[in-house]
Amino acid sequence: MKYLANCSLLFTEYPLLERPAAAKEAGFDAVEFWWPWPAPVPSDAEASAFTRAIRDAGVRLAGLNFFAGDLAGPDCGVLSLPKRSQEFRDSVAAAVAIGEELGVTGFNALYGNRVAGISPEDQDDLARENLGLAADAAARIGGCVLVEAVSGPKPYPLRTAGDSARVVEEVRSDGHPSIGVLLDLYHLAANGDDLDAAIEAYAPVTAHVQIADHPGRGEPGSGSLDLARHLAALEARGYPGWTALEYTPTAGTEASLAWMEDQR
Predict the structure, then answer these.
(1) Which of 17, 56, 211, 238 has a CA 20 to 30 Å removed from the CA of 49?
(2) Which CATH number belongs to the domain containing residue 23 in this structure?
(3) What positions carry a catalytic annotation?
């Protein structure tokens, strides 16, 4: 299994632009980030500083989120909000430009929260349209858009692996093949999804995996999930991609990586 570090949750002891180097020092060859800026499009200086930090660290940026608004707020997932749809599209162009420079293969497109005044059907139609546009843009550089089920109290409509897979199949059926499921084992467990059944059913359409233990969203071993068994099941079903460590360390990033030494 190939592990990478999510540098939006790991190595937060360091400023954002120092985290790629910290990940390299800890033994990672690849990293991923949530959208690093508060706006849909970074300034040229911001984008240049970010790409330089990745290159100078000697790691690959394998995953990058598109802009999704305030992740803790009501607008999470602007791709399905008509008034903010253009922000998502602007973010796609910016993310793919960064991705072309740094070899990004996975672009996480968070689905939109349900909002008042817009029917779920209209939100879904807009989301599908924007996901198709994003998938076509990612395909031009050999990348793939990722669709993820998320936990928590927000009115986010994708809660199970089946929900994400349904959206992926709809977008593919619309003629946009460069899209796949992001299987986040923590979020699925928090939502009560059956991880064994999800892996059995959806490994063929899984394009990226993220892990954290449950409960708590800490490092493997801090909760009750049998992550080693689930990852072995994914490998056995032919999953060839990255497994991202997207957890909140319980006692600092470096200390939280002890489980990897035990595994080796």
Answers:
(1) 211
(2) 3.20.20.150
(3) 148, 246
